[in-house]
Amino acid sequence: MTEAVLAGLAGLIIGSFLNVCIYRMPRDLSVVRPRSGCPSCGTPIAWYDNIPLVSYLLLGGRCRRCRAAISMRYPLVELAVGLLFFAAVWTQGPTVEAVKLCVFAAVMVELVVSDLDSRILPDEFTLGGAAAGLLFAALTPMPPGIVGLLLAERHWRLVSVAESAAGALIGSAALWTVGWLYLRIRGREGLGLGDVKMMAAIGAFLGLHRAFVALMLGSIAGSVIGLLFILLARKDASTYELPYGSFLGAAAVAYAFLLG
């Protein structure tokens, strides 16, 4: 229990940093300097006003100086990452598997919110996530999959990395093919390369079989929820850009934590 609580607190801090990445990376700004400031008046945020969740509540969701409203996105991202980190350690214990799950959750939360916010999926998290997934595959065994059957009797580390690589390459290739076919049939892009790179990260963490399950769940969620939103918000379905990466990432996290 203690380890899970500490992981949750660490998740709050990492969630705060992810908020910086979500805001700055699409704008090609440094995530290191300058220190965080109010988006409305630009006043640098003091350390005591930058405590995850706590400061937002104490300030009533407003800037101390100009009293401009602070987006609910900030505490929600912090809370989401904190809860996911807590759940990872609570279910897996203080293990490498829990660390892998925490890193995966952090990468997906950043990409989900970034796609919602700016329709941009930063390479630092898509390609970086794929590299991290391959690294973790060498540190802890991937769940059994098709690749394991083809490489029976091989060392677990080789099988694990091969499963991760297959998930990244075949998963992203499958999504790229879907996007290419959509372009050929409809005459306009339906998926961006960011989505393809994000699929590579998901495949690297989950492996081939689980990556395709996540892809299926994300596609179903995107179709159903996306169509409902377009209808209710009266958007033009022919021009509205659906944040597919958000559905894909949410489905992947849900599957990894609840069903995987």
Characterization of the model:
- This protein is 69% helix and 0% strand.
- It is an all-alpha fold and 260 residues long.
- It has two domains: 1-94, no CATH class; 117-260, no CATH class.
- Helix 5 packs parallel to helix 8 (193-206), helix 8 (193-206) packs parallel to helix 10 and helix 9 packs across helix 10.
- The protein is globular, with a radius of gyration of 19 Å.
- It starts with a helix and ends with a helix.
Summarize, please.
This protein has 260 residues and is mainly α. It contains ten helices and no strands.
Map the helices and strands:
Elements: H1 2-24, H2 54-58, H3 73-92, H4 96-118, H5 123-139, H6 146-150, H7 156-186, H8 193-206, H9 208-233, H10 244-259
Helix pairs in contact: 1-3, 1-4, 3-4, 4-5, 4-10, 5-7, 5-8, 7-8, 7-9, 8-9, 8-10, 9-10
What helical percentage do the residues reach?
A: 55-70%
| C-alpha geometry | globular
Number of helices: 10
Give the H and E element order.
HHHHHHHHHH
What number of domains?
2
Q: Got a strand count?
A: 0
What's the gyration radius in Å?
19 Å
The fraction of residues assigned to DSSP E strands is under 5%
Q: Report low-confidence residues grouped into runs of 5 or more.
A: none
Mean pLDDT: 89
Sheet/helix structural class? mainly alpha
Beginning-to-end CA distance, first to last residue: 22 Å
Could you give a short account of the major beta sheet? Answer: none
Give structural attributes.
260 residues; mainly alpha; 2 domains
